[in-house]
Design a protein that fits this description.
The chain is elongated, with a radius of gyration of 35 Å. Strands 1, 3, 4, 5, 6, 7, 8, 9, 11 and 12 form a 10-stranded mixed beta sheet that branches. It is built from 19 helices and 12 strands. By secondary structure, the chain is an alpha+beta fold.
Length: about 450
């Protein structure tokens, strides 16, 4: 069937309430078209918007720079949003994991420690099994720590010697091991091995295999000699400058404690999201144990032990929201500017459509569909650029950081499912911001617009 004949009409002046249909548009050849599909005929506004969005060779359009600016404004805005979310989530998780690595998610200590000095906790096998039976608890391990003074030649530095047993999870330190190897710690014999931070080793000018003396001052001075087996570096300076690991047997002997006594019990969770709920369950277990051993015990989460650091991390959430709002405002402003330029440039078309009987709402839909195409293409490029850069940074660490300032030596990246709703919200808000400016169409008069050049 011939396309022109299929849509041919006979316009008669006396006819009233003329509605805009495909048969009114195609005879006037407002667009260079191929045969439209049935869906395009049913949604004429979408069909026209697609033809407006398509670029034709040799066409001179005043709005083309405005469209490109609007498109790249959306692309850059979405790219900044996605990178902000990936970086902040990655930064928070890495800092949090480092804090957790030094003390786990929950700790059980003795109330009397603060008032009477180091007072031990009785860590029986039955207590450890009861703690590990709590839902979301991965393991429960006792530890013993003692402050000391490390000495090499004329150099002295204060440290906290932390004793751990053979079942202690050292995977965190394995991830940040820089030199040497992880020592093998035992429960019933002294290993003489020491896992030291690289920061302390550099200050003391020691390396793997060197011997160091650590002095402990209580009622009298005690000294122990250790061999440095490995050096770790987490860039969390508050911990790196203090913590050194050895076997729990040695530190217990220094404190003159029995084999079931410890400074505290570290409880590791399988899911951080259940921190508060698990804490309540651990409190119930410890209350029963404390009454049995006549000990005054208390339970602290990692957030309660490090309030300043976690308050700082919470501030980052507010910073991200500020960035998202500002970037969305800039992207929306460029889209509004581009839409207004498009409307002014297509005033002649708007006048013709109105003369053919199209309602303002229908014409507004055309330009809103047009804007959706621009936003969609901009968002596509924004996703490609943001995800491409994120993958490069994740695998190769292109952008470096000052570890002393940011606790890590490269910009962290963590992909999150939040990127999907972020794209959806960006699209919906961008379109919603254009509804009001599109009302300018209702102020265009057909008689004046048709003569507009």
């Amino acid at each position: 069937m011939n396309f022109g004949n299929a849509f041919a009409i006979n316009l008669r002046p006396k006819r009233k309430n003329i509605k805009l249909t495909a048969s009114y548009i195609f005879p006037y050849k407002l667009f260079a078209l191929s045969s439209p599909s049935q869906n395009e005929i049913m949604n004429l506004e979408l069909f026209i918007a697609r033809r407006l969005f398509a670029t034709r060779k040799g066409e001179k359009r005043i709005s083309k720079p405005a469209v490109l600016i609007a498109q790249w404004g959306v692309a850059v805005g979405l790219m900044v949003m996605m990178l902000s979310v990936c970086i902040v989530i990655g930064f928070k998780h890495q800092v949090r994991e480092k804090i957790v690595g030094f003390g786990q998610h929950i700790q059980v200590r003795n109330y009397e420690t603060a008032a009477l000095g180091e007072t031990p906790v009785t860590a029986t096998d039955s207590l450890l099994r009861a703690l590990e039976a709590v839902p979301m608890v991965g393991n429960a391990q006792p530890y013993v720590q003692k402050p000391g003074l490390i000495a090499v030649g004329d150099e002295f530095d204060g440290i906290i010697l932390k004793g751990v047993g053979s079942g202690y999870d050292l995977s965190f330190f394995a991830d940040y091991l820089k030199e040497g190897q992880l020592p093998v710690f035992g429960d019933s014999a002294s290993s003489g091995s020491l896992l030291l931070s690289k920061a302390v080793a550099d200050r003391m000018k020691v390396t793997v295999g060197d011997k160091v003396n650590i002095y402990f001052v209580q009622n009298n001075v005690k000294a122990r000699r250790f061999t440095v087996e490995g050096l770790y570096e987490t860039n969390l300076s508050e911990m790196d400058n203090l913590v050194a690991l050895t076997d729990i047997y040695t530190v217990r002997r220094l404190n003159a404690w029995a084999d079931d006594k410890c400074t505290g019990i570290e409880v590791a969770l399988t899911d951080y999201d259940f921190l508060e709920q698990t804490r309540d369950s651990v409190v119930g277990v410890m209350d029963e144990e404390a009454s049995r051993n006549y000990e005054k015990l208390y339970v602290q989460t990692v957030e309660e032990m490090n309030p300043a650091l976690f308050a700082w991390l919470d501030i980052l959430d507010g910073t991200v929201w500020v960035i998202l709002v500002l970037v969305l405002g800039v992207a929306g402003f460029t889209m509004i500017s581009g839409l207004l330029i498009l409307i002014l440039e297509k005033s002649n078309l708007i006048g013709v459509l109105k003369a053919l009987g199209s309602q303002d709402v229908s014409i507004r839909k055309i330009f809103l569909y047009y804007a959706m195409f621009i936003i969609g293409k901009g968002m596509l490029w924004g996703n490609v650029i943001a995800l491409g850069f994120s993958l490069l940074q994740y695998h190769y660490g292109i952008v470096k950081l000052d570890a002393d300032m940011y606790y890590m030596d490269r910009v962290p990246i963590e992909f999150s499912w939040w990127l999907i709703p972020l794209n959806i919200v960006m699209f919906l808000l961008s379109v919603a911001m254009l509804v009001l400016p599109s009302m300018l169409i209702s102020r265009i008069e057909p008689t004046k617009a048709i003569r507009f050049e």
